[in-house]
Amino acid sequence: MYSDGRRMVGPRKGQPARIALALVFGCLLSNCGPALDTEPYPARSIRMIVGYGAGGSTDVAARIVASHLERTLGQPVIVENRPGGNGAVGTGAVYRARPDGYTIGMTSGSILTVLPWTMDLGFDPLELTFLGSTHESTYAIWVREDSPWSTIEELVEYARSNPGQLRVANSSGFGLPDIALAQLAESSGGFTYRTVPTTGGAEQVLKLLAGDVDAEANSAAPTLSHFRAGRLRPLLVLSAAWPELEALGIPLSSEAYGFSARNLSAIVAPPGLDDGARQVLAAALADAMRDPRTVDRLAATGELVEFKTGAEIRAAATEVQARHLLVGEALGRVSR
After folding, report:
1. Alpha carbon distances (Å) from 166 to 95, 117, 143
2. Which residue ranges form the domains of the chain, and what is each CATH number?
3. What is the pLDDT of residues 44-55, one digit of tens each?
4. Is the pLDDT of residue 214 over 90?
């Protein structure tokens, strides 16, 4: 008690703790003092979305790359399959994700170079953040080993003589297989065919083996094991090269018909990706492509392994999309 009779007022029981908590909470809200959001990236697991079903070329390559990224980044990289719309569903999920580096994706040729002008995606794939590319897919026209067609000429003749009867598997929607077959039809005098949609390359093979379709245009990862087991027969290499098939005398479309199909692949992230995360991810991808074991595993799938930086693969996608657009315009398939 003071000399003038006033009572001394001290902190009440528990008040110091409440004041301290209030000050800490205030700092959290106002970001006072040293920055609190300074945890190094990445601090938790990363999703890698693939817009096709498991077992296809994009999925297989994504899992190989993800396993190396995990070792470099020190965090799990979880491959998540979101098939649908020939890659549109999965790539759209990447596009709309938070640009913090915890959602990335592996895309392929159809979504990068064909779908943007055949349907309203609600986004532009070229606005994605391109981190780099590990490969381009080899591509060929396949039939069953017991098929009546032993050569591409025989298949074309059947299609021309039986309009609309040839059943061809694709990855749901007008995509790269259709671009390739449209160019084949045009350069061989014209024919029509029916498409049977699937979730991706792995299901295309299953439908072909089951007899649900007569042919397919597909890449190496889903087809090579069946080819080597004597269940599938290649008729025409659509990509710029496929050494294993070329060695067996399978013709190149570029030499036989004057065209080839580039099936690009890219590792992407949402637009506006945090620059720090972008640099970390791009460096980790480049490191993966310097690793002989990772490169050997990718090459073993039959794909054309070649590293491209983010800028290089975006430029390639822009150029190939423009080329495919010309084909689409000639077919009357441009909707935008």
Report:
1. 36, 26, 11
2. 46-137+262-331 (3.40.190.150), 140-256 (3.40.190.10)
3. 999 999 999 898
4. yes
